[in-house]
Amino acid sequence: MAKKSSIEKNKHREALVKLYAPKRKALLATANDQSLEMEERFEARLKLAELPRNSSPTRIRNRCGMTGRPRAFYRKMGISRIALRELGNQGLIPGLVKSSW
After folding, report:
1. 96: how many CB neighbours lie within 10 A of its CB?
2. CB–CB of 47/40 below 8 Å?
3. How far apart are CA 79 and CA 29, in angstroms?
């Protein structure tokens, strides 16, 4: 199980990303628009830099929905490999069969 603080920190980041998404999108569109003057684009970059760092979507870490484990995360199911194996062994994931030889 991951530390509670790490899980909560990630939840806080997700909330900030959701909050600042429209503003960030507008500033990025302005900053990347080649038809605008260089000064306007530069001002947009400066305003973008003033936003909180944790409002950037790249700072969100994929974590297991059950345990909070940050590594070996399966996006399709939203859980880690360990949780996937446990649920598979219990027969709770349809179509998943543990191989044995």
Report:
1. 13
2. no
3. 34
- Can you give the pTM of this predicted structure? 0.80
Architecture (CATH level 2) of domain 62-94: Irregular (4.10)
pLDDT in tens, 75-100: 999 999 999 999 998 989 998 887 77
The verdict on domain 1-61 having CATH code 1.10.287.1480 is: yes
Beta strands per DSSP E along the chain: 73-74, 79-80
| Maximum alpha-carbon separation in the chain | 66
How far apart are alpha carbons 36 and 58 in whole angstroms?
27
Cα separation, 90 vs 11, in Å, equals 29
